[in-house]
Amino acid sequence: MELSQLITFKQVVEHRSFTRAAADLYITQPAVSHQIRALEEELSQPLLERSRPHLRLTYAGEVFYGYVMRILSLTEEATAAVQDMASGEHGRVTIAAIGTSAIYVLPDFLYEFRQAHPDIQMVLRTMGGEEICEMVLADQIDLGIVGSHIDTSTLQTIFLFDDQIRPLVHSDHPYAKARRVELAQLAQEPFIQFGSGGGWRKYVRSIFEEIDIVPQEQFQIDSIDAVKRLVERGLGFTIAPIVAVQNEINAGTLVPLELTDITSISRKILLVHRRDKYLARSIQLFIDEIRDALRVRVAGRQVAGGKRF
Asked: Among candidates 221, 100, 209, 227, which has minimal Cα distance to 169?
């Protein structure tokens, strides 16, 4: 079994096509087919189902793919460990982040990091917190950024910032002037839920469960920008992180409310990685700089109507 065969297998799985894998690897399609057949003969198991319109993994293929990803990740780590002995900054950092962090918090930091370390390549993906933790554990990404409502007990965690969360209403709402309300009262109005599933939805549900209430959920929207527009038009209220709505708060189109019948709502935003992962110099630089930058930057942003949350 050769490393080149594992790389080819990974490309075939990701592209679900021998042709596209061959193009990506700059080799011929027969060469790709030959390498996959050689793997299957060595393992005495079929790895792919070829009778469907698109290639699919067999059960043996799924198991093997998990190990292939780990082997290739370890190969990258080994290369990085040796390269770290040389002078200069270089390397690659793969990050997955929950949507609100990726959209509203990370861009400025990523720009500054790129300017300071132009030879370090960064790859950013967005997804739900639970999926991020699974990918970190599987060593498919180097680092994850998740909320503390996600189970991170099997990972190394690094605190980044406190994420203040509030109910939000439009500027002409009856509760907007007082900026204080009981959640039990607010929950009688239409609720606009951000996200159609996963950890955030469970977290918001737990807030209402504190007072044993089920919200009148009339909208379920995956786009936080669409949620904000619906609230601004007076179609209901939402619950969202302050960092995601700071521009609207500053403009006066959305108003955050303090809840008087439950404790303040917040979560910690955490950077996570595998406990046993070798942290290449590029990854360690990223960790050190994002930890210091976001703690200061987000604290300064979480201000509404002159009041710091």
From this structure: 227
Of 135, 81, 146, 108, give the one whose Cα is nearest residue 284: 81
Sign of CA dihedral 184, 189, 194, 198: positive
Q: pLDDT value at position 150? A: 85
Vertex 64 angle, CA 61 and 67, to 5°:
150
SS3 for 265?
Answer: coil
pLDDT tens string 88-107: 567 889 999 988 877 888 99
List domains and CATH numbers for the chain. 3-82 (1.10.10.10), 88-161+268-308 (3.40.190.10), 162-267 (3.40.190.10)
Residue 141's identity, in one-letter code, is I
Cα 127 to chain centroid, rounded: 4
What pLDDT does 297 receive?
A: 67
Mean pLDDT confidence for 294-300:
69
